[in-house]
Amino acid sequence: MKTKKEFRLPKEFVEDWITALRSGKYKQGQGELYSEGKYCCLGVACSISGTPDSELEENGLIRYKFQHTYCLPSEIIDEQPLARILSMMNDGLSSSCLIDDETKVMFEKYNLQIGKEYNFNEISDFIKKNVEFY
User: Fold this and answer.
1) Domain boundaries of the chain, sorted by first residue
2) Contact partners, residue 29, CB within 8 Å, separation at least 6
3) What is the pTM of this model?
4) What is the pLDDT of residue 121?
């Protein structure tokens, strides 16, 4: 019997996203969806969904409470707890003002290290392991 996963994303979207993250085409950056030729993992999701880099750069400062989500694909907006985990994994932020109790609980649940910057391959592994594809 399969264990039900907490997060769900469309199969084609997530397979394309994982492929893009592992491709080497995207250089990893932190703190913004896209800046100076580098993407965070959520910026890669935007890119494969057709958002131009210029729009990501103009509007893409990540807000960890996700008040500004209009650049993100709807698939990600629908899974905000996942988006928060992935952005924190990508950026390795350890400032207590950015990490609320809910996030700490989620990091503990998935055996993630607060403060570690996870690379795109590690983030891809997390997505593959913890997201149900439909």
Assistant:
1) 7-133
2) 35, 36, 37, 38, 39, 40, 43
3) 0.87
4) 98
